[in-house]
Each structure stands twice: as C-alpha cells, then as structure tokens.
Write a structure and sequence with these properties.
The structure holds two protein chains of two kinds.
Chain A lengths: L1 E4 L3 E4 L4 E5 L12 H8 L8 E7 L7 E7 L5 E6 L10
Antiparallel strand pairs in A: 1-2, 3-4, 4-5, 5-6
Chain B lengths: L4 H9 L17 E7 L3 H14 L4 E4 L15 E2 L9 H18 L10 E5 L2 H16 L5 E4 H7 L14 E5 L3 E2 L2 H14 L3 E3 L4 E7 L2 E7 L4 E8 L5 H6 L7 E13 L7 E4 L4 E5 L4 E12 L7 H14 L8 E12 L5 E4 L5 E5 L9 H14 L13 H4 L16
Parallel strand pairs in B: 1-2, 1-11, 2-8, 4-13, 11-18
Antiparallel strand pairs in B: 3-7, 4-6, 5-6, 9-10, 10-11, 12-15, 12-16, 13-14, 14-15, 17-18
The chains are: A mainly beta, B alpha/beta.
C-alpha cells in the first residue's frame, strides 16, 4: 500500500504510523463527562467502506495526515494534512 | 449415520457409495426460538451446545457464505490455555478440556493433536515473565513447564542458538496445547448440531435487525425475514457492522491478520513454537506444510487480504529463528478479519437490546476458544446469566474500568 503524502509524494505505507479514526474529538479535559470520555477512548464506528483515518509520516515530512481509504479494498481516495495551515502563515 | 470403524468398513465394502451429506442444506423457517447469526466455529458450537446442553433445538444458524468460509477456515489451528489473568485462565482451560473430549462428543474426527505449545524466551526479563505466567497457570490447574536452553535444544535442535540477534534462553511449554484440524471443527459442529435438529442455513446474509420497543424480534435476510425470540451474534470481524444495524457502537476495530503455509515437507517440527523476540509462530500441519504467521497489518480493514510489509516482517522473524526455512517456498498466504477489542479480550454478554446477545472481540485468538465460547454463549442465551468461567467478558467493562488487559499494551487494537 502506498500513501500519497501531500508533501512527499506517494510513499510506502511502512514509512507511516497508523493512529486510527480521524473523526473522534477529545472532550475538553475538565468539562468532559465520564460517558463522553468512554465514547472517545473506546467506542468506534469501524465502517466497512469509506474511512477517514490518521497516519503519521515519521520517515518523511513528520506531518499528521488524514487519509481517506476504503477499508474493503485499501484504495486511497485522498491524503491531506490533518491541520491545514492558513495561507501566508509561518510553517 | 453415526461414524465408527464399523460404518467405515461397511462403506469400504460398498465402494463408498452410501455416504450422506454431513448436514442438511436447510431453508430458513419463518420463526425460531434462537437465531444464531454467523456460521463459523463459535456460532456452530453455540447452536450445538444450545441443543445438547440446554435442550433448545428450535435453532437456526445463518451464514452469509458457506460453512468454513470465514475465520474458522482462516486461522492457524493452534489450541492452548497458557493465559495469565484470573478473568481468562479458567475460560481457556475450559476450552482445552472441551477440546480433549470433543471428538467423542460430536462423533467427528477433528484431529485434535496435543503436540505441545512452546513459547521461547530470549532475555532474563522475559524468562521471569514466563515463570510468572507458568506459575499462574499451575495455580489455576493448567499444565506448564519452564524449560532452559538445553531442554529447548533437545526438543527443537534446528533453531539458531549460536548467532541470533536474540539468542534463545529457554521456553515455557504447555504440553497439552497443540493444534486441531480447523475445517473439521466447523464441519463436525455443523453435523452434530444438525443431528439435534438445528437448521444450518448457508448463503443467507443478514441485511437488517428488527427491533420493537427495545426488544429484538427478528432479522431481514437475503432469503427473507426470519423471526426469533432470541438472536445471538457470532460474526467476528463483522460485529461492528451487525450492531450498527441496531444503532450500537462497539469498542472494536476490524483489522486483517495474515497467515502462511509452506510447501509440504517431511516431518520437521513436532510442536507449536512461538518466537518470543518477535511476533512469529510456527507448526507443521499433518499434510506437511509449515503453518505460520505474525502481526496484524495494523490498520482497519475488511479486505480479507493483507499487504507486503507484514509478509516481509514475518519472513524476517522466521529466518532469525530458523534459518533453514529459507529453503522452503511459501505455498500460499491469506488474511482473516479480526475483531480487535480495546483490551485484547473477548466479549460474551447481553447487549442493551432485549433478546440480542453478543459474542465478539476475539482479536486473533478465537480459534482456541471455540468450544468454550460456544458453551458459555449457549449458557448465557439459555439461562440469561453468564457462565461462571466467562463472567469477566462483560460488554460494559470498558466503561466500568474492569478491562482484561492480558498483554498489558493498552487500549489501542494495533498494539495487541
């Protein structure tokens, strides 16, 4: 499997580390309820099909990417920076 | 027909023309007392024990493919009960005892072979961890022996003892562990359940769950609707997809695990051996192929096929442990979809929906558990209370903090 890194080009998946689902957002620490933390830490959608997931390009640009991949075929639709920088902002 | 030496002899004399199919190819009836979704080892065992232990035989097992096409035919056939934690040990030992009597119980030759499972250690710390595990096993009445390097060498002399990056120091041996012919487990349970009146329905995919007032009433399938008082999910790899039909999320991710078999060779290795310095394990099938595997690929997948990096990693581990295997060709490799739960342990429990039961989260250790999984799941379904050896496998343990973290690697499935 090759991941099309937006900074480095298509690279072997071995250069990357997988973190999983890109959608869950960590509840705000002091305000978070136990139920919300449980949902965030443990529960997963785990879809068969289109899936947005986080990969870290540790052997390349060191950027976190959101990769959109089909979990049934491993076909990758898109890979984009996890936090897009604003135009003109310092890198 | 009951299988026996006499029936074999009679068929031999009759030219083997009288063998009947091992189970009926049943069409689904409109309604059942219990509907088991998933015709793998766990689902078939559940149906069999519902009928044989609890007298509930108005049961159907529905399978989207054919019997043996899922994980029960995609594993590496190893059985063992070398677990550490109190929530696990009695359960897996129960499975081992059921394996030991399985063939007589279901009247089917499953080729249960107690050839011994040897976990190698390569450091002082790993030896101490295995000594602790062995002690925990023996305290729970499970057999375990801690071997030093020369005892291991006497058993398996052909490994690399001299120049390895992680030299073998010894191993933890469970002599009662071993392997079982996996397809025969599926076929044997299917036949035994069928003989007690269970309908085995193949090529029947569930497309929806019918729920009224918080209670499950039936399923929609590719072969029409089926009503049931109780519905039991045993669909490892696809548990999240089934529970999503009931609006439930699970603490589970699906990952692919690859396995391999070499060309057939003369008997080389008697035991099941695991390589403690990497994730690699190997045994030899009765046909002669070396059966081996390693890590999961480590990202969500429903593809039932893997990718090359893990293949390379497995081959490197194989060569590090046993350089001689470099002369063999890999005949084939395949992938199965694992229900990776967030603590690496299974779930056998009610769901919050009345009448809906869940058997899931076996990670890559489901095959060895097959009989006990079916036994305990049938107990839960029939009596609505957990079996004494499976009380820790609760669905709510993640919310309550009672996780069973056997490998101590935390709540991320790709770390198990």
């Amino acid at each position: 499997m090759r991941i099309p890194c937006p900074h480095c080009g298509a690279r072997d998946a071995q250069e990357f580390t997988y973190l999983g689902d890109a959608n869950p957002k960590r509840p705000d620490g002091m305000e978070a309820t136990e139920a919300a933390m449980f949902e965030y830490v443990y529960q997963r959608d785990n879809p068969a099909g289109r899936f947005r997931e986080l990969w870290y390009h540790g052997a390349g640009c060191h950027a976190w990417l959101v990769v959109t991949r089909d979990t049934r075929t491993h076909a990758i639709e898109a890979a984009e920076p996890a936090k897009p920088t604003k135009a003109g902002a310092a890198a | 027909m009951r299988y026996s030496a006499f029936s074999l002899l009679a068929q031999t004399l009759a030219g083997h023309k009288g063998w009947k199919p091992a189970w009926r190819d049943a069409a689904p009836k409109p309604e059942y007392d219990v509907l088991v979704i998933g015709g793998g080892g766990h689902g078939l065992a559940t149906a069999y024990y519902l009928a044989s232990q609890h007298g509930i035989s108005n049961v159907a097992v529905i399978e989207k493919g054919y019997i043996g096409s899922g994980n029960v035919g995609r594993n590496t056939t190893i059985i063992r009960s070398n677990y550490l934690l109190p929530g696990n040990t009695p359960f897996y030992e129960h499975a081992m005892k059921l394996w030991e009597g399985l063939e007589q119980d279901i009247n089917y030759n499953a080729m249960v072979s107690q050839r011994g499972v040897l976990n190698l250690y390569h450091s002082d710390a790993q030896r101490d961890a295995y000594a602790r595990r062995g002690n925990a096993m023996r305290l729970a009445g499970v057999d375990a022996e801690l071997l030093d390097r020369e005892q291991v060498r006497a058993m398996v002399p052909f490994f690399n003892y001299e120049t390895g990056r992680f030299p073998i120091q010894g191993g933890l041996l469970q002599r009662r562990g071993g392997s079982v012919r996996h397809d025969a487990v599926a076929w044997g349970y299917a036949r035994a359940a069928d003989r007690r009146g269970v309908d085995i329905v193949q090529n029947c995919e569930v497309t929806g769950l019918a729920i009224e007032n918080g209670r499950v009433t039936g399923v929609e399938t590719s072969r029409g609707p089926i009503k049931a008082k109780k519905i039991a999910l045993a669909v490892a790899g696809n548990s999240s997809r089934l529970t999503a039909m009931a609006g439930m999320r699970l603490p589970i991710e699906s990952h692919v695990l690859q396995a391999f078999v070499s060309e057939g060779v003369k008997p080389l290795i008697d035991n099941v051996v695991t390589y403690g310095a990497g994730h690699f394990y190997v045994s030899q099938s009765d046909k002669g192929g070396l059966v081996f595997g390693g890590d999961i690929d480590g990202y969500n997948s429903y593809a039932q096929r893997g990718n090359l990096p893990v293949i390379e990693d497995v081959m490197e581990s194989a060569m590090a442990l046993w350089p001689g295997v470099g002369r063999l060709r890999v005949l084939r490799h395949w992938g199965g979809i694992m229900d990776m739960s967030m603590d690496g342990s299974p779930i056998i429990d009610h769901t919050p929906i009345d009448g809906l039961y869940l058997n899931a989260g076996w990670c890559y250790g489901g095959f060895k558990a097959t009989p006990a999984s079916g036994w305990c799941f049938a107990h839960l379904i029939a009596r609505d209370e957990p079996h004494p050896v499976a009380t820790a496998f609760r669905l709510d343990r993640f919310a309550t903090g009672r996780v069973i973290d056997e490998k101590g690697v935390g709540a991320q499935p790709n770390l198990h």
